[in-house]
């Protein structure tokens, strides 16, 4: 069976989406009916994660530190998307 890397698609998920403290972000890919999870090494508050856009919020409603942290998360997401 041939596999093409361009056909692999994944999504970003929070480790524990219902907690109130920052949680790890994972990249999850399905391949040959198996799930593979890759820890991204960054954390985000669940209430600042946009599941549909697959990114962390960076609005002016957040503090400067939260915006900076979420910008780092979004940069890491872009790195993963670029590599794959």
Topology:
Elements: E1 10-14, E2 23-31, E3 34-44, E4 49-50, E5 55-56, H1 64-83
Antiparallel strand pairs: 1-2, 2-3, 4-5
What does this protein look like?
The protein is of the alpha+beta class and 84 residues long. Helix content is 24%, strand content 35%. The strands form two sheets. It has a three-stranded antiparallel sheet with strand order 1-2-3, covered by helices on one side. A hairpin with an 8-residue loop joins strand 1 and strand 2 (23-31).
- Please, how many helices? 1
Q: What is the general shape?
A: elongated
Main β sheet profile = 3 strands, antiparallel
Gyration radius, rounded: 14 Å
**Beta-strand residue fraction:** 25-35%
For the residues shown, what is the average pLDDT?
Answer: 90
Quaternary status: single chain
Helix-strand topology string: EEEEEH
Class of secondary structure makeup: alpha+beta
Strand order of the largest sheet: 1-2-3
Total strand segments: 5
Poorly predicted residue ranges? none
- Ends distance: 20 Å
Share in helix: 10-25%
Structural features:
84 residues; alpha+beta; 1 helix; 35% strand
Task: Summarize the model shown.
With 84 residues, the chain is an alpha+beta fold. It has one helix spanning 64-83; strands spanning 10-14, 23-31, 34-44, 49-50, 55-56. The longest helix is centred in the C-terminal third of the chain and has 20 residues, at 64-83.
